[in-house]
User: Fold these one by one.
Assistant:
Number 1:
Amino acid sequence: MNISDATFQRLEAEFNAPSVRSSTSPLLNRQWISDAEAQQRAGVNPFPPGVVAPRPVFDIKKMRELLDMNNFALRDSFYELFKNPVFFPRYNESLAEQRARTIQRWRLIAKTGVFHNTLQTFTAEGRQRYEATLESVGAMEHSMEIKMGVHYGLFGGTVSLMGDDEQCAKWTPKIENCQMLGCFAMTELGHGSNVKGIQTKAVYDIPSQTFIVNTPCEEAQKYWIGGAFQSARWTALFAQLYVKGVCHGVHPFLVRIRNEDGTTVPGVTIGDCGAKNGLNGVDNGRMWFSNVRVPHDHLLRRHSQVSRDGTFTSNFKSADERFGASLASLSGGRVSVSAGSLVQAKLALSIAIRYGLSRKAFGPPGQEETRLMDYPAYQARLIPPLATTFVMQLVLNHLKAKWQRGELGRELHVWSSGFKALISWHSLQTLQETREACGGQGYKSENRIGPMKTSHDVALTYEGDNHVLLQAVTKTVFSEFMKGVRSGGNFKGHFAYLKDAEGLRQADLSGMDARSAAFALTVMRRREAALFARLAADLQKRTATGVSSLQAFNDCAVLVEDAGRAHVELLMVELFHHTLGDLQRGGETEVADMLRLCGALHTARTVDEQVVFLRCGAVSVGEAQMMHANVGRFCETLRPHVLSLVESFGYPPHLLAPIAFDYVAHNSKSRL
Ligand SMILES: Cc1cc2nc3c(=O)[nH]c(=O)nc-3n(C[C@H](O)[C@H](O)[C@H](O)COP(=O)(O)OP(=O)(O)OC[C@H]3O[C@@H](n4cnc5c(N)ncnc54)[C@H](O)[C@@H]3O)c2cc1C
């Protein structure tokens, strides 16, 4: 595929930052990378000094393939590309420089042609290639991943999912090769999580056969729109559609916002969102529309159509169904955000665990000091998040496979919402813990964890605020639970386990193997069952007093979120053990055994960290104490394998940090 190099030439001139074009901004000392690579070439694993590489008890390559799923060579080819100085990290650059550098990097990545046929045909292979690319890029720098995710995933994804076949065929090739650069304009200053409430209007004008788009008030200005301030020429605009005076709800339109020379089109005003806490390589903007005329065939009409003479039709009967379908591109976005989020956790753990293995502090008088990783208190901070990261990656792989197969239904919505919330929370917590675990070194930008943390933070908010997502999960699955209740206990689907509610209550956890699926499922199901039953009772109590069901849900929102988390954590355990079963059946015993330990630690820490298990009676005090003891026990068991485990994430030295290797040599006077 020919990428539109003319587009990038123009963009590089527009994002004018001379220091970036001439690459004169200072580089960090990169000798540590050459050292690590020289060790690799000599056949020595580049571990931190004094760290004896344990003989892995599982096949690291197989583990990596299990985690990455596909496109291994492609990922490695990107890691190789990132040895080009354009991709070297630079810190303390101005906003303009960071944005310019992102464009410069995008050009080189786009030039590889990797995005060809990722939107046009939307095959499983195309989606896998797209996801693998974004994940690889995210390991280099998060802004770059998000900048591309907005253009290809959100803008391109909206056109390809919401446009009909003719519209897709016309526009997606141009989006893939960057001839049409776009952004995704859903959020407004006054409405973010509440998308239904957005106020931008698109009124169909029969005489001119155009939609007239207006921003009716300041709260309706489009806000936070990635790429809008400088690079985008087009936007996937979400607006309330009016036909013959009737509002048909939120619909997507393809709208030109800039001419190819970068000037804004008449009626569109664009402003900058300014400096952010992170992700400053992305030019987020604000937009106002004043009588902007959008051609009739730019309503993305896969699900809803307006005839030229002004008749509205839709494939969906209810406005709610229509609204749900118009947000489909967000599910794909949540898959990418979850995957990108775990990349940050994996990198941070790779860096911190290596440092914890080589760094020593305190020790018996007159003897060598003790390695940090040999302190149980230190293990308890890094090994549980490591275990959870493995569990979440394997669970996420189920979601990715579902998305790649094009299963866009209710289950994708629940999984993508729930997993995105829990994965991004987990990653942020891991980034904070790893930052602290590296002490002062964790606060140095060149050691990556700090900048990664500030950039990743917003993953908790965009593509759906995590709290709001958990509420949405409960709202979606609660009706299924209630069907079982109303049928007198004939629970089906996910809740079928409740047919034997008594057996679940009576199960003796202390007599079970804490690494088994039965153990994890018992404890997670008990919590879910208790919280959903509690929610049903509380809602009924409230609606009996005459309040609406919406108000009752809002009144119970804390419990609603607890129930959502319980549901998602149970789903995760189910999917994780499904993978373990497959591995076991496929003869991958060593990999499965290691993962089973990770799963056991993940379950133990989940219970140990959340008092809700005790509060709702899912575990007794004695069982809670057992879980707490299990955390320490499994940390100790996993301790000899932590290096092999982070090795299986597959990141080469140049994507890690100096403290992951010989930090003393790196900081020596001779390298000043
Ligand atoms: C860096 C960045 C990039 C972005 N990029 C884009 C983009 O390209 N395109 C785009 O369209 N949007 C984008 N967004 C917008 C993003 O999707 C929204 O910020 C997000 O949906 C949250 O909306 P909000 O900021 O209005 O927060 P609000 O919805 O106002 O939420 C504020 C707080 O209220 C809480 N809250 C809200 N409702 C409830 C409730 N019912 N019960 C309890 N608590 C509640 C939330 O949990 C949150 O903590 C971006 C945002 C950022 C920060």
Note: The two ends are 45 Å apart (CA to CA).
Number 2:
Amino acid sequence: MDSLLNFSGQVAMITGAASGFGRLLSQGLAARGCNLVISDINREELDKTVSSLQLGENQVISMLCDVSEEDQVKAMVDAAMEKFGRLDIGVNNAGIAHALTPLHKIDQGIMDKQMAVNVNGVLYGMKYQIEAMLKQGSGHILNLSSMAGIGGAPKGAAYAAAKHAVVGLTRTAAVEYAKKGIRANAICPFYSPTNILAVDGFDSPENQQRLAQGSPMRRLGAPQEIVNTMILILSPGNSYMSGQTIAIDGAVSAW
Ligand SMILES: NC(=O)c1ccc[n+]([C@@H]2O[C@H](COP(=O)([O-])OP(=O)(O)OC[C@H]3O[C@@H](n4cnc5c(N)ncnc54)[C@H](O)[C@@H]3O)[C@@H](O)[C@H]2O)c1
């Protein structure tokens, strides 16, 4: 295997691994030799991810973890350290959308949920991942922001606020821990048809077609395309990139 895509001996933690990007990334890293600690709130679908992996039983831990619960996130890192003794990659991927809502109709419930899962979930992941990575003097954190993390998202204000916060956490960690050998980057995908689009306002083929028309390529990114870029970013050869928010967007942000 090309060394740029060889993750043998590495240990990656991935939240939200029962679906979408998290499942595909688990499969992609496993196929390239990476040991995994993966989690989700959906046990049944998480088990399907585990069965799809090209990994031996002793190379993967799967567990229930609601990322909005700090102790559950800590338990993932603890499990990685206990079994593998290290954590090289932390992917804070679990996330939720909200139904399209004009900003003046956003209520506390929508905002609180976005903050709990999309912001606190990432913060808790980073917090314990960094603690583990400090012990070994190396590590790479990849957070899931969004195009809504680097620009406005009409009718997605709470999601956009949360994803902007992810950018703030990522950049801060990159600067704060650079000297300690820890890097942090975020990706900012345009819409991609995973289960997250199964919310009111995004779920019909007509709506997805309309979203596609907002892209210079006139199409949405396939989930596998987004995950291929994640694997490239996580490549052992990509060792000088840190603090970046990488748009994977078919040129939307270039418009
Ligand atoms: N698909 C897109 O269009 C798109 C675009 C930009 C960013 N993103 C981001 O990518 C990430 C992955 O999304 P996806 O598209 O694969 O969606 P998805 O819905 O397919 O997967 C998200 C996973 O997160 C899990 N999850 C939800 N709440 C959780 C919680 N509290 N704790 C733990 N797990 C939880 C879900 O059960 C699900 O398995 C999210 O952070 C999302 O905001 C997605």
Note: Residues 15-16, 18-22, 40-42, 65-68, 93-96, 117, 144, 146, 189, 191-192, 194-197 surround nicotinamide-adenine-dinucleotide (CB under 6 Å).
